[in-house]
Amino acid sequence: MTLDYSKFRDLSPFELKDTLISLASSKADRVMLNAGRGNPNFLATLPRAAFFLLGQYALAEARLSLSYLSPGLGGTVRIEGIEARFDRFIESNEDKEEAALLGHALSYVRDQMGLPADTFLVEMVEGILGCYYPTPPRMLTLSEKIVGQYVLREMVGGRISLDSTDFFATEGGTAAMAYVFNSLKQNDLIKKGDKVAIGMPIFSPYIEIPQLEEYGLEVVPVQADPSLDWQYPESELEKLRDPAVKMFFCVNPSNPPSVKMNDASLEKIASIVKDRPDLMILTDDVYGTFADGFRSLYAICPRNTILVYSFSKYFGATGWRLGVIGMHKDNAIDARLAQLPADAKAALAKRYSSLTTDSADLKFIDRLVADSRAVALNHTAGLSTPQQVQMVLFSLFALMDHEGRYKATLKSVIRRREAALYHELGVAPSEDANAVDYYTLIDLEDTCRALYGEEFAQWMLKRASTGEILFRIADETGIVLLPGAGFGATRPSARASLANLNEFQYAAIGRSLRKMVEEYHAEFVKPQA
Q1: What are the pLDDT digits (tens) for 247-303?
Q2: Per the database record, which ranges form the Aminotransferase class I/classII large domain (predicted)?
Q3: CB of 90 closer than 8 Å to CB of 75
Q4: Domains and CATH numbers, the chain
């Protein structure tokens, strides 16, 4: 019996995903291939091994105090002699690769960054033991410097000094998004009815959050053009000149086209910001570490830009929930707070009165921290300290990879998977120097045109309007792809992650999709026979 796929047309994004998975997994004799989710199937093992070995050292340090009371009891870490004790521990584990990483990490922190080795070791030991509240709550002091150096090297190529940027450690990019939207609203920087521009296609929550009742924002789409290799046309970026547009949200490199903004787009936005110094920008750069020579909007508009970065994809750490928000110490958002009307300032002074008697000097990034814990719990705010330690070890692992071997390996894996998919599909993948290929958008029109010509492509576009194709793919082949429309794409397309399956499985996806197109083509030519 043939399913009526049209009944699924009006599902919500979550219902749609669950329905696709249900259809794809409905046959017991078939393996579901879920290419719809971006969770990678690769992960950085060495910095994790270093984390677990550091935990053993930390326990040994804790056992130096109070252990006479009970074999299971430890005490406060002693800073005196800690560097020498650490060196002996590393020597005793010299056969382990992760011990070498820890030893090199201490050398890098001390000799390259000029940070005090003993203070660093105490922060890492106490952090991994989780025996104190995060202090400062925004981020542990030396952890902020180390993670900041990694993020700025990758996002701005060293064009902005470490001392110019504040970082707030968050529970991944997800929490960063939620915190930023909430604090913008709480601080009267965005209000119901305000216009916000969103660079599309984009990670769907950036489209959905502004539409929630508590925000009620008007979305102005800034649409990337597939015929321009998914760059923003100048005419679309010109929308940012509208003074009614309070903020611009973008993911760079984009999700799902996986293309970084080219220099022309970056410079265009910089010129608009020069004319509109009040424009606020949030750039989510989680995929920036997969690109060569990446430049964030934070590199060219630091005063106006909130930088969000997550460790989840590059290090295969979605379950760790590790991310940061970065803001320039001299920023336009703080300047806007200073320009709020007197009644708004009075209300905010009351809101933050438990933190300071002079809320006018409270920076937006510190308001983010307080708002993340409903202000009253600010004293216990902050990302858990073991999470911050793992973030530091990921950062040091990347900072010390001078030859870029880890990045080169990941890029090679992803691009081999892309090649396998498109080879079996029978079309060539796009050749674009700005593409990072974490995802791919399979364009229905372009694919059908390449395989069987213009007339068939136009016929398929009409079939796409029925909403059946992705559901039929899931039902008949066990493959889950997500509709590009859910990410703000204007052309019928399917998003496939190139990070969460193995190469032979992407080849199988390509073959299955080609077979499906052949079946549609047979239907197309049948009346003409």
Answers
A1: 999 999 999 999 999 999 999 999 999 999 999 999 999 999 999 889 999 999 999
A2: 160-503
A3: no
A4: 5-30+405-528 (3.90.1150.10), 46-129 (1.10.20.110), 141-384 (3.40.640.10)
